[in-house]
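[READ THE FOLD]
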Amino acid sequence: MTHTLDALFEPLELGPLTLRNRVMAGPATLLYARDNVLSDRHIAYYRERAAGGAAVLVSEEHAAHPSALGAFRHACTAWEPRAVGPMRNLAAAVHEHGASQLIQLYAPGIADTSTLRLDDWEPLWGPSPLVTPDRGEHVVGMGQAEIDGMVEGFATSAANVAEAGLDGVELHGAHGWLIGQFLSPLFNHRTDAYGGGTEARCRLVLEIAQAVRERAPGLAVGVQLSVDEHVGAAGITPEETGAQIAVLAASGLFDYVSLSTGSQFSRHRTIPPMGTPDAVLAEHGRRAREIVAGRTAIALLGRIRHVATAARLLRDGHADIVGMTRAHLAEPAIAAKARAGHPERITPCVGENECLSRAFAGLEVACVMNPVTGREGDWAVPAPPSPRPRRLTVVGAGPAGLRAAAVAAERGHDVMLLERDDRPGGHLALLAQLPGRGDWQEGVDFLAAAAGRARVRIRLGTAATVDEIQDTGPDAVLLATGADWERTGRDPGRPGAPPIPGADAAHVLDVEDAARRVLAGGPAALGRHIVIVDDAGEVLPIALAELLGQGGARVEIVTRQAQAGARLHATLQAPEVLQRLAALDVHLRPGHVVERIAGDRLELIEGWSGRPAAIEGVDTVVLALRRAPRDDLAVPLREAGIEVHVIGDARAPRRAAEAIYDGERIGREL
């Protein structure tokens, strides 16, 4: 371990707990529950993070009241007695490895959905009778009986946590959930004892904390706050948060305050995506420590991805403990690898937000960089040795090929990797060169380094042929040759329609070809007026538009979809990216399809009305419609009697998460 990381490994007294270091695996929504209690998948996930050296783990949000289960169909309950048994299993798994485990308790309030569950269509509760900002539901303002019931629900939940032998609770007062709604003047319009000023808005969380202390006196108690709702003076501001922290610290009820940010209006600030600066809340942590003056600990969240950053935050007085949430989704052994002096072996979080896009869709959470996340109970790390080591040739050093090669070599196979380009990474290496996508290079470097450590022999600049592959003498070949963007002009949104007339013209390019030309020759390589036809909804066409706009080109994006860059919306990258495109005067035309490319003229149809439209004076048309597998080597190799496995985009063009998973899968199966 280098001395620069020493601050990470200082012990910390946190209420009744003595933490072995300052590393917190922060609360991440996982949605692994079975019948709304902790599952074996949960327990395997947390066990690995405890074994990986984190001092304290905070669970995903657990419902603390009967009204609180609607927000996530596969979330966990804490208020029901049946939750105690699974929580007891969690305690045993985590304590075996010397870590402490807290349960995060919450109620969603107006951020819930009243009709998600068929057997309970009660209206939503909130601090005041409002209309929800995202779904337009009318909210019932809570009376004293509802408030008292909510306090009792949290207290009962904490008692269940204590009965299970767990170590503490964190009250979720951030991100626009119920406690945060009471703390926010945006949602709390009350004029009674629970509203009207900072102390009154803090009353609910203080009553909950007091009840928790009385019912479960041996637990550590923390609270998570949003330092800013990013709606100006109408909501929680950093100044208001400072006043709230002063009230909470003075109460003596909290062993720590955890700092996050954002609400329903600013989810992209809560979970900052790729391209966002690291440690975005650092200065808020420093100010909070000054306010509490040692009366309680400050835990800091907010895109803390690297151990060097975490150690600096501790060393420079920005936090007492660092919450590395998505970082632990990517790498369970952050603390252990850092302490062993191998931070370069920590699987990086690249901020692609595959995790949260799945959570928002109600799916079990996964990690783009680590296919084992969520599968800890099925896939051991490291993968067990192969009972029959073989000679393998992998064709293609994109994400699937790199992962497959590394895992197979770690298991004892002799692996040769052939790559036609002069650098590894495939389409991720291309994306990494585009605006806001640079974090992908960190992911590529990690995948390539893992293959190198496993002694994979990598030949770059080798366009593999059947003869060349045969010359490597393989027992089996893994084709990870990726996919090509189609140039036929066939629009997947118009089944049965013929190719776009004019799509074969010389000034019509596929999006990957266009991006490579611009990176090689500058924005002028495509002319002054470029139209990107994007029906894929992926990142590449949007990133290309930004690159062209930065170079002064006039750029228009035409899409049949309701919004450009659908994937960016799912991963919370859209707010920042679309603002940057607007600043570059990139023009978006949603809901349009291309009927014809006639020289420098594009003829369009507006999808909703059927009205014609046109774009004139176009220098280059860029098509981003769909990708086709690049699998042409599979048949001749099989005809030559070679065992072939097609993986990644060559098997089915999908996203990086699926490609890396496919590499992991085949590397373990062979």
